[in-house]
Amino acid sequence: MREPRFWSNPKERPGWQAGLLSPLAALYARATARRVAQDGYKAGIPVICIGNINAGGTGKTPTTIALAQRLIARGQRPHVVSRGYGGRLEGPVRVDERRHDADAVGDEPLLLSAFAPVWVAKDRAAGVRAAEAAGASVVLLDDGLQNPSVRKDLSIVVVDAWRGFGNGRVIPAGPLREPVTTGLARGDILLSIGNGRAQARFDTGWAASVPIPRIRGELAVLETGLDWPGLRAVAFAGIGHPEKFFRSLRELGVELLRAEALRDHQRLSLPLMTRLEAEARALNAQMVTTEKDAVRLPRAFRMKVITLPVRLELADWSPLDALLSRLGLD
Fold first, then answer.
1. pLDDT tens for residues 135-148?
2. Which residues are within 8 A (CB) of 299 and not within 5 positions of it... i.e. 6 or more apart?
3. Taking residues 222-248, what's their average pLDDT?
4. Which residue numbers belong to the known binding site for ATP?
5. Which Pfam families does this one have (predicted)?
6. Binding residues
7. What interhelical angle do 60-73 and 318-326 show, nearest 10?
């Protein structure tokens, strides 16, 4: 499903469609509020939630990677617990890239497993218990802000700085899982991700509505030695907002001859990949995709597609470091 265009309208002008859908949005918000009010499992180790209020991609996966690396540098043993969206396994099961593929555990857990132990569990509490039993000193709960089954010791709310909270309305009237004030009330810190222009846009559009501390981050391309400027490319992406990936390629100087936006987590079937390969060959171009999409590639295409690796860089780690220290994660 593609987001309706009116979801990205300014909050001051949400659009007539948002008004028409507001009764359904109220029902959705009420159902979310009832769900999050439940009391969950209290773990014996700190649980850090990386979540969002928006539906779709905001940068939670790069945030989880960066936080796992930060905790490891502090001598901690972080384990990630994920519901494994798109995977068939109920869990709890520890992700093993030698045995599992994206169809089994989901693409995000498979990508995250390169950085820290990852548990897929539809029952998040069972996943946290499994991580505790396996020796984790801290759990990173991926996309758990609206999931009440586990109590959180720290909740990081992630938002795309350029998109902000869209028109400020709840699904289906807007892009939000719950109202901004409601979601942020359960958060400890807001991480806005984007470049300088995006952060400035958030400053003027949404910053005044944020009642919790805010830190800023940006996704930076990892240096791999690949010469991006002038590269002729056929790019494809099945992430929350593929246009961000395509924009990044253009900013690197890539000559983007074809940009195929797929559904979020879409299966990269052999017929689809064969078609993209034929188009790339006809255009004398290289196939390019995201790290998250790359883990879903059929084995025959893994050496034919290059990826654009990105990592989250924070302008200032000190506010988050202080919160980690309060949890005893030094």
1. 999 999 998 898 89
2. none
3. 90
4. 54-61
5. LpxK
6. 54-61
7. 60
